[in-house]
Design goal:
By secondary structure, the chain is an alpha/beta fold. It has helices at about 5-10, 25-40, 45-50, 60-65, 85-90, 90-95, 135-150, 155-165, 170-185, 190-195, 200-215, 220-230, 235-255, 260-270, 275-285, 290-305, 310-325; strands spanning about 20, 50, 75-80, 105-110, 125-130. The two termini are about 50 Å apart.
């Protein structure tokens, strides 16, 4: 089962007695746990019917929590981090789950990024694998959450918010809440509202900056670079982001020249789909030789910064000026 199946089942009241939340997306695991709590534990009774010690539990602690009877409701909800139990007390856990108390719902959370249950538990536990959201999934999620908050956030606009806020779901949700508050104050839910309230991550501004340079708006591109540096962004970090973009374009150009389709190239690049798509689009504007040379310029700038041969800001500004000089062979 994946996270979407779980949320659907919770909404329809089909709740298993024991879950194992697997995978690396801890934020989503906590959201699912909160949804289970809302479904099972009456408001105001969490102190008696919800047990989550926020630490690795022993099997004895787990049993004590699950064997406690619920108070004024049908089931208690017990959650615990279970990596140590899975490693050291798996047989005892399997034996206990074979006769699990019906008045409890148990959630075993794996802090490690495992995605499979031990064989001895597969028939006793409903495993849910939480995978990181891609841009499309996150955009749909933010659009739904905004609707619940009384604000219309179209999926296309939510995707723009994702690119601006980055793929950290907790951060993106926080920026969505800022957007909703701004709209509820009487402003239109449009791109201008996003620009006014969403704080862009450096990756997004690097894309904006390079796009400005690519269309010949060099003064605006350099101004944006200075704004990022004045705001405290690390020159070394920005250099790394620029190098990453040119490295992706070098790879995309080589694959396109070899006859691969744009769709196949984007899939091969992997990672963020928006970044992959931008790499495919951007590489078409330049020769392979220019892209390789640009990447080399950024690599040399990185070396100058790390060895102290030049102040970091100066090295980055010189590299960017060289990349997008009028005489660049594109």
């Amino acid at each position: 089962m994946n996270q979407n199946d779980l949320f659907s089942e919770i909404r329809t009241g089909r709740i298993a007695p024991v879950y194992a939340f697997l995978g690396g997306e801890m934020w989503l695991k906590r959201r699912a746990l909160a949804a289970l709590k809302d479904a099972l534990v009456p408001e105001g009774l969490g102190l008696f019917n919800y047990d989550f010690p926020e630490k690795q539990a022993t099997l004895a602690e787990l049993k004590a929590a699950c064997d406690t009877l619920p108070y004024l409701c049908e089931k208690r909800l017990v959650a615990c981090f279970c990596d140590e139990i899975m490693r050291e007390e798996q047989e005892g856990l399997a034996e206990y789950l074979g006769d699990f108390p019906p008045a409890c719902c148990l959630v075993l959370l794996a802090e490690e990024e495992k995605t499979k249950l031990p064989d001895g538990l597969k028939d006793l536990v409903t495993a849910v694998v939480f995978k990181p959201m891609d841009e499309a999934m996150m955009a749909r999620y933010l659009s739904r959450e905004a609707k619940r908050a009384g604000v219309n956030l179209p999926v296309k606009l939510a995707a723009r918010l994702c690119r601006m806020a980055g793929m950290d779901i907790a951060r993106a949700e926080n920026e969505m809440e800022k957007f909703c508050a701004y709209v509820r104050a009487g402003h239109a839910p449009d791109e201008d509202a996003l620009r006014r309230v969403v704080t862009p991550v450096p990756e997004y501004n690097v894309f904006r900056m390079t796009d400005l340079f690519f269309v010949g708006k060099k003064a605006e591109g350099m101004r944006l670079l200075c704004e990022m540096l004045d705001a405290g962004e690390s020159p070394l970090g920005l250099c790394g982001l620029l190098a990453s973009r040119f490295r992706a374009m070098v790879r995309a150009k080589a694959m396109l020249s070899g006859g691969a389709s744009a769709e196949a190239v984007a899939r091969s690049l992997g990672g963020n789909r928006y970044a992959a798509r931008k790499a495919v689009e951007g590489c078409k504007k330049f020769t392979y030789e220019y892209l390789r040379r640009a990447y080399s310029v950024l690599h040399e700038s990185d070396v100058r910064m790390k060895t102290g041969r030049m102040p970091e800001r100066t090295a980055l500004e010189q590299a960017v000026a060289k990349l997008f000089a009028d005489e660049a062979d594109v």
